[in-house]
Amino acid sequence: LQLIAPAEVTEGQSAVLTCKTTCSLTDPTFIWYKNRRDLTTNTIRSNEVHLQPVSSEDAGSYSCAVRGYEHLPSPARTLRVR
Q1: Sign for the pseudo-dihedral over CA of 41, 9, 20, 35
Q2: Maximum Cα–Cα distance for the chain, whole Å?
Q3: What is the pTM of this model?
Q4: What confidence tens digit (pLDDT) does each residue in 47-62 have?
Q5: Among residues 6, 2, 19, which one has the least CA distance to residue 54?
Q6: Which residues form the Ig-like domain (predicted)?
Q7: CATH number for the domain formed by residue range(s) 2-81
């Protein structure tokens, strides 16, 4: 798994985090983490998270995993908000 995200974003703008997988699973469900906690605010089945508009509370360390393979999360990426 690979997490693609901007390193820094300006508050009020939008940001897209994308989880890329190289395996050929049919319709995988993606699990998103922020600061090692499950992002359960809404069920994000998609491989993308849209932060719109970005606020200072969105800053943190993000990672993703595929359901059933939670023990193999992506390397974390830190998102800074300025």
Answers
A1: negative
A2: 38
A3: 0.89
A4: 999 999 999 999 999 9
A5: 6
A6: 1-80
A7: 2.60.40.10
